[in-house]
Amino acid sequence: MATALEQLVIGIDIGGTGTKFGIVDRDGNVLFSSEISTKKHATTESFIDELYTELSDMIERSGGSGRIKGIGVGAPNGNYYTGTIEYAPNLPWKGIIPLVELMESKFKLPVTLTNDANAAAIGEMMYGAAKDMKDFIMITLGTGVGSGIVANGQLIYGHDGFAGELGHTIVIPGGRHHPGTGKNGPLEIYASATGVRLTAIELLENSTEESLLRAVPLEKLDSKAVYDAAVQGDKIALEVFEYTGKILGLALANAIMFSSPEAIILFGGLTKAGDLILKPTKESMEANLIQVFQNKIKILVSHLKESDAAILGASALAWEK
Amino acid sequence: MATALEQLVIGIDIGGTGTKFGIVDRDGNVLFSSEISTKKHATTESFIDELYTELSDMIERSGGSGRIKGIGVGAPNGNYYTGTIEYAPNLPWKGIIPLVELMESKFKLPVTLTNDANAAAIGEMMYGAAKDMKDFIMITLGTGVGSGIVANGQLIYGHDGFAGELGHTIVIPGGRHHPGTGKNGPLEIYASATGVRLTAIELLENSTEESLLRAVPLEKLDSKAVYDAAVQGDKIALEVFEYTGKILGLALANAIMFSSPEAIILFGGLTKAGDLILKPTKESMEANLIQVFQNKIKILVSHLKESDAAILGASALAWEK
């Protein structure tokens, strides 16, 4: 009986490749969820149309829109204050997109937006590894690298809502070119799925070492292929993770010396490589920290069910509002 | 009449070379101030003894210790939560120093400690360039490089009180060695008075270019000498500031992409070089920022009277308590 009146929220996680969405209850149960392609939509309008069609059906099955308190959206460069997505390098839509306005007029529900990593951080605080933490940094290692920073128990949005772009900080000045931003040497171009692929290609080109990866066609040389080779002891594949961890660890050390979190929480595809990536990351992090920070900052991997975590994080925004 | 009852605080700024201290009223007027050497004291005890002797006289002249609400201390690696100075690379005292405990037992007054840059940030918020700002980063460019980060209107202390060590973040991986920390390539070893001197020595060694600096004895080759040569159009001296600004700007860009402040406030000896350092810093900062942050984050130079600013910042802590 009571459940008939219980409020629900919608969580939407917009990624560079796909968009996950679902309907979530107060306890963090994802009642329904699905995914559509982000990439195939040349315009935000057609993207929102498809999302609306898919979600309308879910809303009906959940008992109608009267039960929905609101919609939380996590998206790259999503701005909490303005409700816009601005110049997101990994999305097909360029310039400034008034996402909240477009979605509210379509869905007739309140919509709250923040960047995908901020959404993930809120999700971890409500349901995950950061429960009871007041100072932590959430880092998402997917197609790109995102981050959400919590200090004094609050998400740091910055003066304009754009804080937390750790993936774009320059770790190797004059280093690898990021085609999305035009900058050289940002973390994202090394410590993402894209970065792992590029490192593998570079190492294969600059060495004559035998490798299982030489048999993999270039278009299939992704972080999964590198992982599969690494677990078989492939030297080049192992070196790819060593190198990635070395750079990620440096970036983590820099982030720690800035805001001194209790823990760093990692989430996303790359964390599936487990110790292959975590061990060199931790080693490099410790090596770059000054003494006061050494051996006390935890690196945790999100334990939220991966298919749900992105949706949960975004949905948590709708409760907060 | 009322002034006889007005409360006062003591502000103490402990630096690697000297320690400034003074008595301050509610409006930020520094009533008395002086300075002693930090460097010459091999132990914290002898340092506190000298400080006590000097301050006792000032306290008497201010109307006695009954008028003093408390003491605020800014010091490198000073920890707000524990009241200790831990492993400060630029101070003569090694290990963990229980400064608050030592000072309270000597002065019989409440003592509050934080790192020097956090103290400066609080001072700017109360009396200076950051009045009414909720998100800014204070960076002190002295013998070392310190920083204090304010987000959502609060100082970020981190989970353990050690946040804000931007000077130790690695900007050039594998770069110049920092003898105090053993790390390679931190901001502090480039963008401090020490760093400017090292850059000047490097540039002179690696070039045959004529320079006024070649006539300066090595022990006198400091940032002041470089400045004096630069204002006369000396090419090597100008290059020193260009190089310093390039690295400082990169570090500012990284800090901005992390916490998105409204402004960066610079303070300390290096800022005296004015546009010689600010112009290349700003250029490098903008070049390293992704689009959403470009042309909107201000770089401000602290306008607090330099002799007072460090004392004011530290004293502000005592009001906050």
Verbal overview:
Two copies of one chain form a homodimer. Chain A has 321 residues and is an alpha/beta fold. The first copy, chain A, has two domains: 2-122 and 307-320, Nucleotidyltransferase, domain 5 (2-Layer Sandwich), CATH 3.30.420; 133-303, ATPase, nucleotide binding domain (Nucleotidyltransferase, domain 5), CATH 3.30.420. Chain A is 37% helix and 19% strand. The model of chain A has no long low-confidence stretch (mean pLDDT 93). Chain A starts with a helix and ends with a helix. Chains A and B meet through strand 9 and helix 7 of A and strand 9 and helix 6 of B.
How would you briefly describe this protein structure?
By secondary structure, chain A is of the alpha/beta class.
Compile the SSE list and pairings:
The structure is a homodimer of 321-residue chains.
Chain A: H1 2-5, E1 8-14, E2 18-24, E3 30-37, H2 44-61, E4 68-74, E5 85-86, E6 96-97, H3 99-107, E7 111-114, H4 116-127, E8 136-141, E9 145-151, E10 154-155, H5 193-205, H6 223-231, H7 235-259, E11 263-267, H8 275-288, E12 298-301, H9 306-320
Parallel strand pairs in A: 1-4, 4-7, 8-11, 11-12
Antiparallel strand pairs in A: 1-2, 2-3, 5-6, 8-9, 9-10
Number of separate domains of chain A: 2
Helix/strand class of chain A: alpha/beta
Order of helices and strands of chain A: HEEEHEEEHEHEEEHHHEHEH
**CATH architect. name of the largest domain in chain A:** 2-Layer Sandwich
Please tally the β strands of chain A and state the result. Answer: 12
At the first level of CATH, the class of the largest domain in chain A is Alpha Beta
The share of residues in helices of chain A is 25-40%
Query: What is the count of helical runs of chain A?
Result: 9
Q: Spell out the CATH superfamily of the largest domain in chain A.
A: ATPase, nucleotide binding domain
Provide the gyration radius of chain A in Å: 20 Å
What does the largest sheet of chain A look like?
5 strands, mixed
Q: Write down the overall mean pLDDT of chain A.
A: 93
The protein's oligomeric status is: homodimer
